[in-house]
């Protein structure tokens, strides 16, 4: 087990959480805001669970995620940058909404339901990560790692369960934060993730041996019985 990689991963993820927390609480102008802390907690739990899963099931995936992005598609770099900016904008807009009351009254029951669905979305991503030894953060064929088709776990039901989980938490985390403005931003991010799903699926069909056969067996990309 490479201790340096673990430290690098921990530092990177901690910095990400710190940026998110700063975006939320500085823009909100307060720290006594339970939805903000709930959002941080669920993301921290997902980060920790992902690390445990990777280290226990496929430690080489950690090096893949932290290494140079050789062979990454140019369109993927653009999409990831846009999604990252939208995520930052979501937290800032949610904090400003909390400060200035743009949304107004928001049902607590809806916030709690959103927290549950958000956690389920993150859990689905963790399940996909545990099932897929090639669950990289960029779209590329990992030939040097013996990239093959994955059809177990949630991949039995849809071809891109990680994106389904991501869309679930993208939309519901804004409802947890009680902000329709942030929800609108999250909607844009969800659309970009759907675009990425289509482009990644095309890449795998064209470049990964066996994926076309898998796609004929598992017909739906994201939503079982729908698409």
TrEMBL record:
<keyword id="KW-0472">Membrane</keyword>
<dbReference type="InterPro" id="IPR007269">
    <property type="entry name" value="ICMT_MeTrfase"/>
</dbReference>
<keyword id="KW-1133">Transmembrane helix</keyword>
<dbReference type="GO" id="GO:0016020">
    <property type="term" value="C:membrane"/>
</dbReference>
<feature type="transmembrane region" description="Helical">
    <location>
        <begin position="75"/>
        <end position="92"/>
    </location>
</feature>
<protein>
    <recommendedName>
        <fullName>Isoprenylcysteine carboxylmethyltransferase family protein</fullName>
    </recommendedName>
</protein>
<dbReference type="InterPro" id="IPR052527">
    <property type="entry name" value="Metal_cation-efflux_comp"/>
</dbReference>
<feature type="transmembrane region" description="Helical">
    <location>
        <begin position="9"/>
        <end position="28"/>
    </location>
</feature>
<feature type="transmembrane region" description="Helical">
    <location>
        <begin position="173"/>
        <end position="195"/>
    </location>
</feature>
<keyword id="KW-0812">Transmembrane</keyword>
<dbReference type="Pfam" id="PF04140">
    <property type="entry name" value="ICMT"/>
</dbReference>
<dbReference type="GO" id="GO:0004671">
    <property type="term" value="F:protein C-terminal S-isoprenylcysteine carboxyl O-methyltransferase activity"/>
</dbReference>
<feature type="transmembrane region" description="Helical">
    <location>
        <begin position="112"/>
        <end position="135"/>
    </location>
</feature>
<feature type="transmembrane region" description="Helical">
    <location>
        <begin position="34"/>
        <end position="55"/>
    </location>
</feature>
